[in-house]
Amino acid sequence: MIHSTLLLGAILAVSGFAQLPVKQVLDLAPSPGNPRNTEGAFVTLKDGRILFAYTKFTGGGSDHDAATIVSRSSNDGGQTWTSTDTPLIGREGSMNAMSVSFLRLQDGRIALFYLRKESLSDCHPLLRYSSDEGKTWSDPISAIKEAGYYVLNNDRVIQLKSGRLVMPVALHQPVDGKFGSRGLTMTYVSDDSGLTWRRTGVLGAPPDTRAGFQEPGVVELADGRILMFIRTQLGSQYLSHSTDRAETWSLAQPSNIASPLSPASIKRIPGSGDLLMVWNDHSAADASHRSTPTSGGKRTPQTVAISKDNGKTWIKARNIRSAADGWYCYTAIHFVKDRVLLAFVSGGSGLPNLSRSELVSFRLKDLR
Fold it and tell me: What does DSSP assign to residue 5?
């Protein structure tokens, strides 16, 4: 039997690690008074325009500095964008507001999720609704009532075919008054379109790393199961499955997705059962790039691949960015007819690692 990690390496070797032809459609580089632009999300409006929201920092470059959520829009399928920011969510928390997810609900409304940070021990996902295609937003609903520091990555909340909302989060407990890097992954679910939530499926974190299980994501598979993918410090994304709509989860196991301590992003390609994944492929990385139980590894290259078997194997792998000093992560995926839009945080080439937000576009047929 071939070990799964070796299988992925073989698959990628066949593809030759070719560069995927992508077009950069928006570059949100830092500027004076705006030291950092980070993770975002997309939603297509009913008039065909695309709304993109991202985190704009104004008070410094750390995760806890002052930041708000702003937006840009496109009326040509994401190929060009408005040149100025429109405020979306102000600096609500004592620290900031950041990490946005959009979700078009089955009832037609747009749900907007984001994090409100009050302190190193108080960070909670909030939810607002829009019934007029983003012109106005409701008052916020706190999705998690329990005290703690809960991380919800950008572009992460999903709605199942059944209508249930699933929100994957990681709880970080403070250590000696400082942010605790060790994550404990769990899900929250809602059966009333987000008005009320309850905790389900806590996953036990590995005991031998400082990171634990961090920044989970979920995707509903064609067979009705839910796949959870989890950032770890153990050399790969860990995977878990739910067969009961996120009530319980299988024991998280190492996967064939070689990865540093960096999040992956996975979505179903509309009209098919195929999955599209973006991650930092480390299947051919040398030791200086790889993650270990005490270090995180380098977040390069940035790679995209497809799975036709519910995430068991990944094929057609292509690099999007591959600079040796690059830093690429927190990707949002959005499908627009025959094209894919990606938004991700980047750095390197003289810029801090998490400072610039890039949007790129490519044709699905160039990957499939």
Answer: H
CA–centroid distance for 242 within its chain: 19
pLDDT value at residue 17:
60
What pLDDT was estimated at residue 242?
98
Q: What is the pLDDT of residues 122-157, one digit of tens each?
A: 999 999 999 999 999 999 999 999 999 999 999 999
Residue type, 169: V
Pairing relationship of beta strands 23-28 and 351-363 according to DSSP bridges: antiparallel
Q: Is residue 349 very low, low, confident or very high in pLDDT (cuts 50, 70, 90)? A: confident
Q: Closest Cα to residue 224, out of 159, 308, 155, 160?
A: 160
Q: Is 271 exposed, middle or buried (0-12, 13-18, 19+ CB in 10 A)?
A: exposed
DSSP sequence for 222-264: TTS-EEEEEE-SSSEEEEEEESSTTSS-PPPEEEEEE--SS--
Q: Quick: pLDDT tens for 196-255.
A: 999 999 998 777 788 999 999 999 999 999 999 999 999 999 999 999 999 999 999 999
Q: Alpha-carbon distance 254 to 3, whole Å?
A: 11
Domains of the chain from N-terminus onward: 24-263+322-366 (2.120.10.10)
Amino acid (one-letter) located at 211: A
Report CA-CA distances (Å) from 233 to 54, 124, 258, 310, 352. 27, 24, 11, 24, 22
- Give residues with Cβ within 8 angstroms of 276, minimum separation 6: 266, 267, 268, 269, 304, 305, 306, 333, 340, 367
Q: How far is CA 68 from the centre of its chain?
A: 18
Q: What is the CA radius of gyration of the chain?
A: 19
Q: Is the pLDDT of residue 308 over 70?
A: yes
Phi-psi region of 283 (alpha: psi -120 to 50; beta: other; left: phi over 0): alpha
